[in-house]
Amino acid sequence: MTNEQLTFLHDQIEQRIKGIDSRRLRYRNAAFRIFMSTAILAALSTILLGLNVQNEWSEFVRITTLVITCVITIINGYNAFFNHRELWIANNDALNRFYALRFRIEFREKEGTPLTATEIESFRAEYQAILNELNQVWQRTRSDNFGSKPGA
Question: What does the pLDDT look like over 15-36, one tens digit per residue?
């Protein structure tokens, strides 16, 4: 029975590593794109305002600057709602913890003696703790974005 459990745990860890790594990269890319978009738009807006155009283009520059600042506000609202940076960091942490768990299991297996049921249960509990913590971060970011706190 313990061999089946250990094989199952190995498979689950590998599946989690693949899924979390994929989400981690997606969140990282989104966080980077949002950060760079707002930085570029803010710089462009500053440049346009700094030009202090006093000719037939002044109204165009004023309206363009207004539109740019509105777009920045929308992007920041989107970012506040989805909080890609926090999810990127949480997934990165969980991924590193799953790598460490996989290493500990494989290192223990290299001893050459079968793992005990207690050891397998300990590894399973650690696996579940990693998932629980990642889920808590996800739930907190979702509830924070709706203006309520868990347990409030």
Answer: 999 999 999 999 999 999 999 9
